[in-house]
Every structure is written in structure tokens, then in C-alpha cells.
Design a protein that fits this description.
Blueprint: H1 9-26, H2 28-58, H3 63-91, H4 93-108, H5 119-155, H6 160-188, H7 199-231, H8 238-246
Helix pairs in contact: 2-5, 2-6, 2-7, 3-4, 3-5, 4-5, 4-7
């Protein structure tokens, strides 16, 4: 037997959910964290979409070698995860993440000038950027948890469900933007993937593959330096947190 819902119940509940989401975005630490997460997710997803095209079309490698490079990339991320966790505990999470972003930019930027026969250098790029991926996977979720705890102590309410829903939406949005942007960019730049990458198309392809993610990661470094580090719990004195709890 199915009970009838009260008239307007679904609409009221929906308005409460959207109200929570908008209220979360008005809380500056969460809004900045969301923005950094969105930009960095796009910066990671865009090269991932274009990676097979660059490896096979520009460097002329075979499918087997493509999988080997992916193994190197993710293997580096797995092996260096403990290192970034140690650094985040000693330097602070935001400092460690900004360091990883800076290393990623420095390691990825030289791809712009690599020639098709310089695959050894591209392997090194995969190792270094894979190592910084470990920081992207390990540190931001911990920062998100700190910001949520700060929100709880500031508002005296638990909104973790709405926050995680919002982060999930941001993650999916970043992937959609990366996929749509990658193929739209290839079309606008006149890169014909099906016919192979010629010399005239190689530079626009590398610019799309490298330049946009680098600019997005630099934007994350700048935004995170301004406000988030000062507003997360890791920068709050323990006495302030204890005083709030006592109240």
C-alpha cells in the first residue's frame, strides 16, 4: 500500500535541498574549495581525454605502448602517495598541494616543445605528472573534510550530505567540460584525428593538450594562496577550536 504524499511535500523538500546547496556556496571556504576542485578536475581530465590522440597520433606509438605509458603514469601515482601524505602532515595540506601543482606545471609544460621522436622525455613527463596526481587524489578530499568541519563549527549544523552531493556534481561537470572542450577544441583548430596528425596540426594539438591544463593549475595555485589556507582548520589554533566546542 502506497501512502499519498502531502500536497507540496516534494516541492518543499526540493527547495530545502537547493537552499542548502546555495547556502554552502555562500560560505567562502567551501566556495573557494569548490572552485579549485572544479578547475583542477578540468585540468586533469582534459589531458586524459587527449592522451591517446597525442600518444598515437603525435608520437606515433602503438596501442601497446599507450597502455604501458598509462601503467607508468598510474604506477607513479600509487608509489608516491605516501610521500605526499607525509609532506601534507609536515608542511600543511595546502602547501603540499600547491607544491604538487607547481611541480605538475613545471613537468608538463616542456611537452609543448617535444618532437615526435623524443618519447623518452615524454616517459619522464608521465612519471613526474603521475607522481603529482597522487597529491591530487589524496590531499583535496582531506581539505574538503577540514572545510566541512569548519562549516559545522561556524553554522552549528551538519551539511555533509549536501556538500558531498555538490562535490559530486562539480566532478561530473568537470568531466563533461573536459570531454566537450577537447573535441570542440580539436574541431575548431582543424585537427583531423581520423586522418592522422600532420605537422601543421601537431602544434595546435599540443597547445590544447598542455597550455589549457597548465593555465588552470596555475589559477588553482593563485586562488588557493589567497584565502583557503587561512580559513581551513589546519590553520586555526587549537585553543580557538576548543573554545568553540565548549560553547
Amino acid at each position: 500500500m502506497v501512502r499519498d504524499l502531502p500536497t507540496g511535500a516534494l516541492g518543499a523538500e526540493s527547495s530545502v535541498v537547493w537552499g542548502d546547496l546555495l547556502s554552502l556556496l555562500r560560505f567562502r571556504p567551501i566556495a573557494l574549495t569548490m572552485l579549485c576542485w572544479l578547475l583542477n578536475s578540468i585540468a586533469n581530465s582534459l589531458p586524459a581525454v587527449l592522451f591517446p590522440i597525442v600518444v598515437t597520433g603525435y608520437f606515433g606509438l602503438e596501442e601497446k605502448q599507450l597502455y604501458q605509458l598509462l601503467l607508468i603514469y598510474f604506477g607513479s601515482a600509487i608509489m608516491l602517495t605516501p610521500l605526499w601524505l607525509i609532506l601534507s602532515s609536515r608542511l600543511s595540506k595546502m602547501v603540499a598541494w600547491r607544491l604538487a601543482l607547481s611541480i605538475s606545471v613545471a613537468a608538463f609544460l616542456p611537452v609543448l616543445v617535444l618532437q615526435p621522436d623524443q618519447t623518452c622525455w615524454f616517459v619522464l613527463v608521465c612519471v613526474l605528472t603521475g607522481g603529482t596526481l597522487a597529491a591530487d587524489l589524496a590531499i583535496p578530499p582531506s581539505i574538503q573534510a577540514d572545510v566541512l568541519e569548519l562549516d559545522r563549527k561556524t553554522t552549528q549544523s551538519r551539511r555533509s550530505g549536501a556538500a558531498f552531493a555538490l562535490w559530486s556534481m562539480v566532478t561530473k561537470l568537470a568531466l563533461a567540460v573536459a570531454v566537450g572542450g577537447a573535441f570542440s577544441g580539436l574541431y575548431c583548430l582543424g585537427v583531423e584525428v581520423a586522418d592522422g596528425i600532420n605537422q601543421a596540426e601537431s602544434r595546435p594539438l599540443l597547445a590544447l593538450y598542455v597550455a589549457i591544463p597548465v593555465l588552470l593549475k596555475l589559477a588553482v595555485v593563485i586562488i588557493s594562496r589567497q584565502s583557503i589556507a587561512e580559513l581551513t582548520l589546519e590553520r586555526q589554533p587549537a585553543t580557538d577550536i576548543a573554545a568553540r566546542d565548549a560553547n
